[in-house]
Predict the structure.
Amino acid sequence: MEGIEANEEACGFWLERSLCLVTALVPYIGYEKAAELVRRAQAEGKTIREVAVESGLLKAEEVELILSTAELTRPGIAGAKKLKPKRSAT
């Protein structure tokens, strides 16, 4: 395994297109709204980030914070140190 390096650009590309990113938004918008975002992203060929901002459920700055790689890779709710979950996740 020596000499193998991650292709950061490719990793970022595929992460951005992953519909599972919506799970980080659930504490802020709830399961039903999150499912709506996934359906819309699939239907329109867009990313979760794009449809989350377009939906108006969260501000662009909130989405950027929540879906940042730093927030997604630390334990706990992404963005919770700076944002408070607004809605019940149910």
About this structure: The helical segments are 8-16, 26-29, 31-44, 48-55, 60-66, 69-72. The chain has a mean pLDDT of 91. The first helix runs from residue 8 to 16. The radius of gyration is 14 Å.
